Amino acid sequence: MKQTRALLEGAILISLFAIITLLVVYVPVIGTILLFALPLPMILYTIRHGLKLGIWMGAVSLPVVFIVGSFNGLIVAFMSACAGIAMGHFFKRKEPGHAIISGALIYMLCIVFYFVISIQFLGINIIDEAMTQYRQSLDIVETVVKQSGNAEQLEKQLKLMEEQLGMVQYLFPTAIVMVGAIFSFLSYFIAKPLLRRFSPDIPNLKPFRELKFPQSVVVLYLIIVMLSFLPLEKGQMLYSIALNGEFILGFLIFIQGLSFIFFYCHKKKYPKAAAVIAVVLGLMLPIFMAAIRILGVIDMGFNIRNKVK
């Protein structure tokens, strides 16, 4: 009876998974939103029946998706199925934080895998094509500006944009990390109402004010900062490591600083608007962002939360 019920639920959720995949592939606006809900069938099935049956469901669903959704549907479904199974496994163990981290790692690995496949087998380099199109757009804008007569100031802006473009092409690893984290968080927040209904004993995430990264983040960030002072040339491996490390670790330290601000406002019973204003200023003004990063370094390095009374 239990096996029959598991098969029936698996058939229903595979059908739902295939339908959502079709909407993601063929309905642009709605599909963009449903993309983050695509791991839901895998999450629910893995929670209810365990990791082993969850993997079996994922394996069975992929041929079904390929038949109804073509190769594009298979690409989307594979990534979402893997992330959903991993997240469902940790949700079953009542570890929502690990579920989000595992989902983010799966998304990142799948993006890297697709990127390698596109280069090795299809001969398509997504980064080079994007850079080429962007440079062509800059050339068109430069031609129009020269013809209009207002060339001096706009040419300076175009040169600045070209310099920034040269830096952006080395930040592909940072983009992968950000996309993976965003996808995983959105999948969790979409799944949360259903998780509460089917597994009410799954705990909530800790409040943002209690977020605390390990001290090793500060140590790595200081190493990366010292590395950036070396005469590194573009194209070198160390240049790419220093650039991406500074962005990723700097962002984590910025988040740590914001977490401390929320913690401080909570302890002092200040209104939440004060913390929200700090977030807005930090995102808009570079000087506030630098101040919040310094606060994050101090919080991680010296544990100043214990001194807040």
TrEMBL record:
Transmembrane segments: 12-38, 50-68, 104-127, 170-191, 211-232, 238-263, 275-298
Signal sequence annotation: none
One Pfam assignment: DUF2232
InterPro entries reported in the protein's UniProt record: DUF2232 (IPR018710)
Keywords from the named record: Coiled coil, Membrane, Transmembrane, Transmembrane helix
Source organism superkingdom: Bacteria
Record's keyword annotation contains Membrane: yes
Coiled coil: 144-171
Protein name listed in UniProt: Integral inner membrane protein
Originating species: Bacillus inaquosorum KCTC 13429
